[in-house]
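Comment thread on ticket #2218

A.B. wrote:
> Attaching the input chain for the structure job we discussed in standup.
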Amino acid sequence: MPICDRTIINETKWYKATDDMVTNETQIGLSCGTTYALWMQGTIPTEKDSIGVEEDRTVCVPGVMSTCEDSFLIKIMNCGSYRLYKLKKPSSCPQAYCFGYGVKDTPPTQKVLKPKVEHTFTRENGKNIQYQFSNFKCVFTFLNSPDPTKPYLYQIYWYINGENKYVTEPLRKEEFEQSYLNERNGLDKMGVKISCSVKLKYNRRGIPGPMSDKSQEIFVGIQLSSESLHITRGGSGQVDLTFTVPFPCGYYSNAVHINKINKDTCPLHIELAVPLKPK
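C.D. wrote:
> Ran it. Output below, let me know if you need it in another format.
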């Protein structure tokens, strides 16, 4: 799926760039991971006398007929060893700002098989107790690089309700726990659908290979067994709920095993609201 910065940039603000924005429309191609790659006209300010000075630049929006069918202004500031870009939210999807890659290597040609999303707990330390911390991991079969001296790095793209919400750093297989999706990096509520996809790299700042197929979406939250329940006046009924992921709890003080939890630490209160004037 093409990247769209509209789902990432919610307001106009400054962003630090390790590599500079592409300034030549012939370079954009499909390597930026999007359909309409936003590129910048003009030059990159690198001179000493430009350090700390805000400058205006024109960003081009490519279209069907030309590489600059529309345009808008951004600001750029030279900070010596890097640049700051004051970026605006793109007008539509799939548009994304195109920045160069720091390592001009040959990207991988392989892609992983279709991944799947699974839930997992990690153990966290609270003020008084240890507790289960809820995570989601993108599960797939790791690949062997054709060059043993250049093992693959894996970059995970996380989607919530179909929108790309979080992209991990390129990670080694041994670092994969850092790719988990949780409340610290984009998952701010339950009752949503989650999916993921994967790109391979040789270098952290290198060009990525092709995107894998996106995983099947999974719903995370509480589901009702039926959408409606008919109860006669003065009668009663039962509402059945299903948890699609486990509910986190605290551990006993002497717990060793990951599943040795204290259920008294995780009560869940559910309120049922009934309209005063049913339709």
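A.B. wrote:
> Thanks. Noting for the ticket: The longest strand covers residues 116-125.
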